[in-house]
Specification:
The complex is a heterodimer.
Chain A (H helix, E strand, L loop, with lengths): L1 E2 L36 E9 L2 E11 L3 E10 L2 E13 L2 E10 L6 E6 L4 E4 L4 E4 L5 E2 L3 H11 L9 E7 L5 E16 L2 E11 L7 E8 L5 E9 L2 E13 L2
Parallel strand pairs in A: 1-9, 10-11
Antiparallel strand pairs in A: 2-3, 2-16, 3-4, 4-5, 5-6, 6-7, 7-8, 8-9, 11-12, 12-13, 13-14, 14-15, 15-16
Chain B lengths: L1 E5 L3 E8 L11 E8 L4 E6 H15 L5 H19 L3
Antiparallel strand pairs in B: 1-2, 2-3, 3-4
The chains are: A mainly beta, B alpha+beta.
Chain lengths: 246, 88
């Protein structure tokens, strides 16, 4: 069994010099104070290229545990189906299990084995060292609001938020979100004033580029999300249609 | 009514029609309106044809199709539907 802290140790380049943790990427991942948003159901309009559909993000925080799901579909076909469940610790949202299913493919899982400080996967025979604050590819959407809600005055344009993020197929990397601007945007749900736009640039081919707009009037929940894979296909965009209780 | 697709060539809108009060039979009735932007024609498909259109789209979506591939698939339906119109 191969133990890999990240998959960033690309065969080319100097990255192979160090395969340890984020050291391989040279970025320290801080632990942030957090204040998770209250329970919510966000309905989105989904767009991918010429396709339109609908999406839904459901956030169910409890006293000690949480449930989170994201679905997106178009033409009656599931494009994105992800769930994350777990609890909370000193670093905020602490996932235990992440499930990812897309377009009818087999469901893939990442299991956060907190007693062993390891993350294992249903598919690839890879282990990732579990570090404080590690998020899955869905929980970051709530961890970002939780970090900003805890210190809204701190995260002004020009600052950064750095997370260690793992997917369900053994992929793991440091995601640095640059706080880019405050913007007034127009959404199906209506106008949003002063949405905080954060951007994560892809760092290698087929890496994920993300732009997310967080609404300060809605607990900094994501009111617009744009995800693209560099050099690969159309971006998927979620635009808030409505927000209500779950 | 829901917009499903909007490329440079085609628009596809889904219609879900509620059954008339007291109606028997299928619970809902609906279909797709396809607008061919270049030919300036619109067609409405329903029933078995709408179902086969939808199944074809779903099969196509398994392979992350490009817009060109989508347009080509849709053009198969608009071409079919335009034939009866030429009889007039």
């Amino acid at each position: 069994m191969r133990v890999a802290a990240t998959q960033a140790a690309a065969p080319q380049a100097a990255a192979s010099a160090s395969r340890n943790s984020e050291g391989a990427e040279g970025i320290a991942v801080p632990v942030y104070a957090t204040r998770p948003p209250p329970a919510a159901r966000l309905q989105y309009e989904l767009r991918r290229g010429a396709l339109s559909g609908s999406g839904q993000l459901v956030w169910l925080p409890g006293e000690a545990t949480y449930g989170l799901s994201l679905e997106g579909s178009a033409f009656g076909t599931l494009l994105i189906g992800q769930t994350s469940s777990g609890g909370f610790d000193a670093a905020g949202i602490a996932p235990l299990r992440f499930l990812d299913r897309r377009r009818g493919r087999d469901e893939q899982a990442a299991n956060f084995q907190r007693d062993r400080s390891l993350i294992t996967f249903s598919g690839p025979d890879v282990q990732v060292a579990l570090q404080p604050g590690t998020q899955d590819r869905l929980s970051w959407m709530l961890q970002l609001p939780a970090i900003i809600e805890a210190a809204p005055a701190r995260f002004v344009p020009g600052t950064h938020i750095t997370l260690f993020v793992v997917g369900a197929r053994g992929e793991a990397s440091v995601w640095t979100f640059d706080v880019e601007a405050r913007e007034n945007i127009s959404l199906p749900a209506g106008p949003v004033a002063g949405a905080l736009r954060l951007k994560r640039e892809p760092r290698k081919p087929y890496d994920t580029q993300i732009e997310v707009w967080l609404d300060p009037a809605r607990h900094h929940l994501p009111v617009r999300v744009r995800q693209a894979v560099s050099q690969g296909g159309d971006a998927t965009e979620f635009l808030l249609r409505s927000l209500g209780p779950p | 009514m829901q917009m499903l697709y909007n490329s440079d060539s085609f628009v596809v809108v889904q219609f879900d029609m509620a059954p008339a009060v007291g109606a028997v039979g299928p619970l809902t009735r609906g279909g797709y309106e396809i607008v061919d932007k270049f030919a300036r024609k619109e067609i409405f498909i329903e029933g078995a044809l709408a179902e086969s259109f939808k199944l074809g789209v779903q099969a196509l979506m398994e392979s992350s199709p490009s817009e060109e591939e989508f347009d080509e698939y849709i053009s198969g339906y608009t071409a079919l539907a335009q034939q009866p119109l030429q009889l007039h």
